[in-house]
Amino acid sequence: MPRAIWSGSISFGLVTIPVKLTGAVRSHELAFHMLHAKDEGRIQYERTCSIDGKKVPWDEIVKGYEYEKGEHVVLTDADFERIDPKVTHTIDILEFIELDKIDSMFFDQPYYLEPTKTGRHAYALLRETLEQSGRVAIARVVIRTKEYMAALKPSRDALVLDLMRWANEIVDPSSLDLPGDEKMPPAELKMAKMLVDSMSVEEFEPEKFPNRYREEMLALIEARVSGKELPKLKKVAPSRGKVVNLMDVLERSLKESKREGGEKSRHKRGAA
Amino acid sequence: MASQRVDVRIGNRTLSLSNLDKVLWPRDGYTKRDLIAYYEGVSATMIPYLENRPLTLERFPNGIDASSFFEKNVPKGMPEWVHRVTLASPGGTRSKITYVLCNDAPSLIYLANLAAIVLHVWTSRVGSIAQPDFVLFDLDPGEHCTLKTLATVTLAIRDALASVGLSPLVKTSGGLGLHVVVPLAGGHSYEQAKIFAEIVARHVAAQCGGLVTLERMIAKRRPAAVYIDYVQVGHGKTLVAPFSVRARDAAPVSWPLDWSEVEAFKRSRTPVPADAFAKYTIRTVPKALHQQGDRWSGRSWKRAKLETTIGRARKLWR
């Protein structure tokens, strides 16, 4: 059971749905420690003062904002408290919108919402409603001491709270040197589209794309630990763009289902 | 206005019908009574095409000009005697949908009373829901496509299929186009049916040149060509059932045709396909059915075994 990082309720009109928030993504980034090459001692950090060069204990550290190069204004805990949003423990739904109206660049960090016992029905109702209407809810939420804009989306059996970036966090592409509305030669466009068609798939299957760097790095680490020879790096065969002969595909599939002993061929989603 | 209710006995069920005088086709004056009478009249012929196939209802509670909606889940208040089946949602996102099954006349009348004008059925049945029992080619003529072109392409599909030993069926969609249906033997997966449909569509497209488009984006199709939609095969994909009414002026019906009729379309001087299909409506079909019978029945359906078929296609369609 993943640990809840927040609990509160979704507030939508007169309805409140008690929920818990748990992380929906986890990082698979490999972490490395910094060591002293000579004796492999862990490198440690020390907080020192740039003026007297001495070590500074935590209780002597305050926060300052650099309003001008080298010039700081000190902010106290009381200053922060004054500005901190009121901890409300609610996800306040403000509006509903079709999902594809939101540029995916706005989505920052997804969390799962899990209903508590008394919220199950209302949770399912909201999820079903969003699912059927093709819309998501835009909400405000305060987590710890920060306020966020977030989208509430259905995802399989769950409701996902996707924390969003603020409007001013998205860089305006007009600062880049980009080609504008240029006339495309129809022949070139046609060729390019044909290529796109030939490489198009019906469903997105992320499992098709393994994280090769991680796999190879882990294999290398394992070899180092067990003192084996380093694994040979696999050459990545380019498999894209290959025009697959549909007849071959069909015949292979028919042979496969025959080999399964005339057993019912199963649909991917396992309908019945 | 007080809603008037009429109790009627259909088979062994008593149904309480409502608002029978509600006009559903404002320019033709057809009411819900006409819709119910139609479905009652064709029920014996139609039910075998609906039986045990999950349904999507297209409902028009306030007539064809007002807002309508597609309903997959069992409508509220549906009596217990109407059969139903719970399946994985085609979208894959939510877990389950409980679909209506229309297995008898009372169920059909019940649905007609909900102003479910159009009945969309799956290409597989409960019990073998992962195995389609036919492949569908939905032929959709472009804005400037003539009846002759549509018929030419439809016959090209028939001939291609006949060359590999298959006997497809054809019907009007009830709208602008035609549906060609290839009955399948048991044991084929949706994936296999889908690939087969694509092979046929691509082969016919190559043969017919400019008359056919496989372009899925409407804006990019040539308006004079026929779009062969071969992707309407899959878990949750549906087609308008034979004898289903459509929500268009004159209340046209999806009518099973004889291939000789498609050959006649090819010679016909009627330019617009829909005009040729307009004679099959809720007014005319019950009588036509009585006189001519169901074009699709009475013949033993030859069911395709794709392994044999594809072996032949490999030799012929190079």
The H-and-E topology of chain A, N to C, reads as EEEEHEEHEEEHHH
How far apart the termini of chain A lie comes to: 30 Å
Q: Which class best fits the helix and strand makeup of chain B?
A: alpha+beta
As laid out across the biggest beta sheet of chain A, the strand order is 1-2-6-9-8-7-5
Rg of chain B, nearest Å: 20 Å
The most extensive contact between chains is: A-B, 26 and 30 residues
| Number of distinct helices of chain B | 8
Mean pLDDT of chain B: 91
Query: What share of the residues of chain A lie within helices?
Result: 10-25%
Global morphology of chain A:
extended
Gap from first CA to last CA of chain B: 67 Å
> What overall form of chain B do the CA principal axes indicate?
globular
Strand order of the largest sheet of chain B: 13-14-10-12-11-16
Provide a compact summary of the structure:
The complex is a heterodimer of chains A (272) and B (318). Chain A is α+β, with helices and mostly antiparallel strands and 272 residues long. Chain A has helices spanning 77-83, 120-133, 186-198, 212-226, 246-259, and strands at 6-12, 15-23, 63-68, 71-75, 90-98, 107-115, 135-143, 146-155, 158-164.
Describe the structure in your own words.
The complex is a heterodimer of chains A (about 270) and B (about 325). Chain A is an alpha+beta fold and about 270 residues long. Helix content of chain A is about 25%, strand content about 25%. Chain A has 5 helices and 9 strands; from the N terminus they run E-E-E-E-H-E-E-H-E-E-E-H-H-H. Chain A has helices spanning about 75-85, 120-135, 185-200, 210-225, 245-260; strands spanning about 5-10, 15-25, 65-70, 70-75, 90-100, 105-115, 135-145, 145-155, 160-165. Chain A has a 7-stranded mixed β-barrel with strand order 1-2-6-9-8-7-5. A two-stranded antiparallel sheet of chain A has the order 3-4. In chain A, a hairpin with a 2-residue loop joins strand 3 (about 65-70) and strand 4. The longest helix of chain A is centred in the C-terminal third of the chain and has 15 residues, at about 210-225. The model of chain A is unreliable at about 235-245 and about 260-270 (pLDDT under 50). Chain B is α+β, with helices and mostly antiparallel strands. Chain B is built from 8 helices and 16 strands. Chain B has helices at about 30-50, 105-115, 145-165, 190-210, 260-265, 275, 285-290, 305-315, and strands spanning about 5-10, 15-20, 25, 30, 55-60, 70, 85-90, 95-100, 115-120, 135-140, 170, 180-185, 210-215, 225-230, 240, 255. Chain B has a 6-stranded mixed beta sheet. Chain B has a 4-stranded antiparallel beta sheet with strand order 6-5-9-15. In chain B, a hairpin with a 7-residue loop joins strand 7 (about 85-90) and strand 8 (about 95-100). Chain B is globular, with a radius of gyration of 20 Å. The N and C termini of chain B lie far apart (about 65 Å). The model of chain B has no long low-confidence stretch (mean pLDDT about 90). Classes of the chains: A alpha+beta (about 270), B alpha+beta (about 325). The interface of A and B includes residues 127, 247, 253, 266 and 269 of A.
